Amino acid sequence: MKTENFSKTKIKICGLRRREDILAVNEANPDYCGFIVEFPKSFRSVTADEVRELVKNLSPEIQPVGVFVNASMELVRSLLDDGTLAMAQLHGQENESYIAELKAHTDKPVIKAFSIKTADDMENALQSPADYILLDQGSGGTGKTFDWSLIPKIERPFFLAGGIGEENLEQAIREIHPFAVDLSSSVETEKWKDPEKIRRVVDIVRKAVQD
Asked: What are the residues whose beta carbons fall under 8 Å from the beta carbon of 194, sequence distance 6 or more?
C-alpha cells in the first residue's frame, strides 16, 4: 500500500477549473487539489488538456488529484504517466479488477470513493484494494453529509467528503480523525471557487486540535 503515515488531518480542495482557482489554492496551500476530468454531467468538469495546462501553474507542494467517473483506463493512465496527476480518484462503478489493473500499470496512489448509507456500505469500502478510500454521502458535490456514526474505528487512511464546511470541519476532524477532508461546494460562491473560503478552511484544518 503506497500510503502516507499521518497524524494531522490533511485537506483537499476539489473541483478546480480555472487559472484563478489555481492561484487561490497556491496561496492557501492545501495538501491536495482535485480536478473532475472528462465528466460533462458536472459543471466542474475539465478536459484532459485543460488539466495539463492548469497543473503547470500549481505549486509543487500541492498534489494534483484527478477525479474520474467510469473513465477509460487509457485516459486515467495517460494523466498519471505523463506526470500531470499525482493520484487518481475513482468516483464511479470501477470494480476491483479495474483498480488492480490501474495499480499494476502505475506507481501513483489510487483513491476509491464510496457512498456510505449503511453499515454494509462501510464494510464494502474497507475491503477495497485502493490505496485510500473516500467516504461520501452519495453522488458527490451535493454539499450534504452522511451519518458519520456508520464509520467504525478505521486503521486504513481515508478521505472524508460530503457536506463538510467551516461550520463542521473542526468537529469532523476531532470526532472522525480522517486522513484527509475533501471540500468542494462549501468553498464556492455562486458555483465558483472562493479564495477567501478556501483560505479559511485550510486555516481551520491547520489549527485543528487532534487527539
From this structure: 24, 187, 188
